Amino acid sequence: MTQPSTADQQIAPVKRSLVRNFSTLAVTLIGLLLLILAAVLWPILIAPLLILCGPVYLGVLLPLRVGREERRKRAEQIRQQSLATWGFVGRDRAGPWLNYIDYPLARYCEALRGHYFYGEWLILHDGLLVINPGHAQVDRVRGEVSYDFDHPRTYAWDGCTPKIAFYWLLTFGSPDWWDKAEPIQRIEHGTLVTTSVFWPLTHHASLVHDALYQYLNVAPVSKAQADRLFHTMLLEAGMLRPLAALYYLAVRLGGARSMRDRNNPDSPLRCLTVMPTYKAVTEPPTAAETQAAT
Fold it and tell me: Is 0.70 surpassed by the pTM of this model?
């Protein structure tokens, strides 16, 4: 069983349309809804709303247009590097990058048990997910890969999509909600350590979801599985059930629609790095873990 071939990957160049772009489409939809409401309730507001269309569109399009070609070239270079190193490329991610982690973050998913995938930013090893696993050594001739968890890189994501930049002055979109302390698991010296982070309510769920979506085209993870895990993690973080259901519905209907029927095989690579043993995140950290986290 092999992943999609390099040839299959090469026929999909980076495309970042200014018209068929979520930011542009979202502003258009909001504008149409406001115009319809104005036509029904306050017709006198139609003219001012039409006048505002120009500055609003300009505010959304300028951050997309300025530097667009350079961003596209850099994204294409990264894809070519991935092809040369791993033999595949993940799905294009356009940003904006608002958050980051600089350590390997782990999460277990029972639904993914028995599946294996090894990539630059994601490991799936018998149900254990590792985001930002660190520097990797890949030998495609031998079919082997190893990771250095103690020398991680920096993985960035935008939180809950979409995020729309407006004149470089502000960014708006799906709320990530209030900050709260949340237990997570990270890898330190080859061991899973439970620590507490203080970040927005949706960050843990959106981080894992974004990493899974990045590799939906090559990893043995279905879109439905990624979306269900996102919903589960929102509830674990303390989000109200109706709101979590709304976020789940948004990704279920609007996220990665071209990946709905994707069914990828396991990675052909064999991982030489010993994976840490999973422990439930609800377990209180031991004294050694607490000392290591400080």
Answer: yes
